[in-house]
Design a protein that fits this description.
This protein folds into 2 domains: 97 residues, Immunoglobulin-like; 347 residues, TolB, C-terminal domain (Neuraminidase, 6 Propeller). The protein contains 5 helices and 37 strands.
Amino acid sequence: MEMICSSIKKLLAVGCWLLAIGLAACSSLPTDVKQVNQMPDIYPDYVGVTIPTDIAPLNFVMADDAVETIDVEVTGSKGGRLHANGDVADFDIDAWHQLLAQNKGGTLTFTVCALKDGQWTGYQPFTMTVSEQALEAWGITYRRIPPSYEMYSRMGLYQRNLSNFDEEPLIVNTQTPDQCLNCHTANRTNPDQFVFHVRGSHGATVVGKERIELLKAKNDSLGGSMVYPYWHPGGRYCAFSTNKTSQMFHTNMKNKRIEVYDAASDVFVYDTETHTMLGDTIIMKKYWAENTPAFSPDGKWLYFTTAKRQVYPTDYDQEKYSLCRISFDAQTGTLGTQVDTLVSADATGKSVSWPRPSYDGRYLMYTQTDYGYFTIWHPEADLWLLDLQTGVSRPMTEVNSDRAESWHNWSVNSGWFLFTSRRENGLYTQIYLASIDTTGKATKPFLLPQRDPKQFYQNMLYSFNIPDFTSKPVDYDSYQTARKLNGQERVATRFQ
């Protein structure tokens, strides 16, 4: 009996010691805090951002890697509290969403303490605004691609749930060896209609509607592939450009390594019911390069960019695109007879690319560069906003940086937009989100949340390309699609 009691005492002693070690390892609460009159330097910089109620927790860390522990108290202006403590401010997902719902239209106040070299430092609180405007999106889709010039390496199309951190592949090029996957494009964020292009020996344009069709990669009449798609809101038509793309490398420009340009490009409309490409000489001019089409939300206009073709590669920096539009009749599938110029390259001395109208029809967002259209390689690339009621354009200084802003898309309610930027390191494009009000004023953008943001973005040696909102998860058979892509069967198209 005495031996049993002695053993129990030893086990209890070991258990208490292990418990004490566990508590010390899991929790280090602030004591003897030294207060400073400055904001905390956090990564990502979420200070003062505006967020929707349906966004994942905006976890963050101290920018200083020497900080051992961060302690964060969050209080809502309309009630509620939240606490996080550890090497990352990792907020419980359910508690985070409850706090945001409780404080819709209000603010969250973050009080941060950080432990470094045995000393706790307390910082001035900062706030986030919880918007009244819902995001109205289940998530986003995007392509992840490594920085490369010739080899496709490993790339894929992915979808991400914006309310948490769940990500899953739609298709990756290990399923289709030696193929390049171009980006997934849905119809007004509805993934029931989507298209993406695959380049390579088994190339095809994948169109998903009631069923998935694989179109022949190239049409001899066009002389190129179907790229840069944009759906007509009715769903029958989809606008494309066809491009003969080349690239060259700079030898004496420190901030620009490469220039991507088109030896030729045209814009046309594809009829998904008849497998017909609808073209017109008014937007397929011999000595002009038409590019990056987009339909208006009512389907009555087709926006596109156009530039006079230059002598390549010597005059590459003289290629400057104007923003134009032409009417479109969905009943007859015909284009109008007059092209309107909305932003003239002759007047601005700059180049326009990637026009994207808001779904409420009020604004059109585009990217402006010094020349060309492949904006990810242009550090001067900025977002601009055209008011379609007044015809006035302005730079979106509230979201632009001194590095490339390259691709953007609207939420279905036109209250939010996302874009890619290389502002962090100049090398990798990352996704940012911001809200925009009815006057066209945008809020401070915030980086796409991750559970451990510093570890994720420091270790993620991939760029995010062509992001877009999706109203629900993309639901299709990736295995069967890859199987078809690896086969030979394709639907032929004809040019009209």
